[in-house]
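Here is the promised in-class demo. Please do not try to memorize the tokens; focus on the logic of going from shape to residues.
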């Protein structure tokens, strides 16, 4: 088992979706995961934010973020 840290520093739906996707898949493989929102990435900590906005590939943050919350993945802001 390895430790992974993902850092989100931009207010971009494509980058946020990939960050959440990679964190979810890494955790599912049994690794320890931490996420940090820094700089403009802190805007993703807003609980009124729309997580259903689609990316260029058609998925959205809401496809992955609920898993992170349900599995108590630490998210630092």
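The designed amino acids, position by position:
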């Amino acid at each position: 088992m390895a430790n992974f840290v993902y850092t989100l520093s931009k207010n971009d739906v494509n980058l946020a979706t990939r960050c959440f996707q990679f964190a979810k898949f890494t955790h599912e493989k049994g690794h320890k995961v931490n996420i940090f929102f820094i700089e403009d990435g802190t805007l993703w900590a807003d609980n009124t934010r729309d997580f259903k906005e689609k990316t260029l590939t058609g998925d959205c943050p809401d496809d992955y973020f609920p898993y992170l919350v349900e599995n108590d993945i630490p998210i630092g802001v």
